[in-house]
Amino acid sequence: MTQDINRLKRIGWGVRAVFGLGIAASLAGNVLHAADNPISQAISAWSPVALLLAVELISRIPARRGGLSVVRLGATAVIAGIAAWVSYWHMVGVATRYGEADSSAYLLPFSVDGLIVVASISLVEIGGRIRALADDAVPAESPAPATAEVIAPQTPAAPVTVAEPAPVPTVKTSPAKRVTPRPASAEKVAKAAAKMPGATVAEIAAKAGVSVSTARRHLPAQRVTDASPFAPVAAETPALIAA
Question: Residue 76 and residue 123: Cα distance in Å, rounded?
Fold first, then answer.
């Protein structure tokens, strides 16, 4: 693709040389036919120079919008028409002055103007092809450098220490002692024994309103031993009956 671009550029320079030759011929004819003063010669030389500049602009500067491109080409065509019309009659006068026949004098300017038109169109075409190849070569030959993704070095994270919960002290609770409520009969026996210190077991039992066995169970050992184990039973029966 680069070789094609270089080849087209070389051809373009050749076409410019041909285009410059046509402009020089037109310029010479205009200057020779003008009056012998600098102002007249400059006025007559202006139209070929304007055409040269217009063709160079449209061949080198691309138009991105269709409307502007049409306007630019239209203006160039107007400049080319004016230059061709002025150059034609100037060259006819020069050819006639320097001995050309009537028919040759009127046909010779067409060769110069035709060469200018062909060269100008060729320059525009070559410029367009060079730009198209250059646009296609940009992504293929010189791709835009990819943005390297910068990866920041990862520092090792500090170990997270999880605080262990403090051990809850275990409070050993001793089992509650079962308090056996003192029976009411024991209180009655104790009260009766306190009121009757010299009484026998049967008398205490009668006073407390309990049986002799219950009184014997709740009385202190010395009180129980004081009484005869056999006598109280016979004596307790009337007491129980009386109670």
Answer: 13
Would you state the structure tokens that stand for residue 42, as one six-digit string? 């400059």
Q: Which two tokens stand for residue 221?
A: 């050992």
Domain ranges in the chain?
A: 2-141, 184-242
Amino acid in the structure at residue 149: E
Residues, the chain: 243
* pLDDT tens per residue, range 10-54: 888 998 899 899 989 988 888 988 888 889 889 988 988 998 898
Q: What is the pTM of this model?
A: 0.51
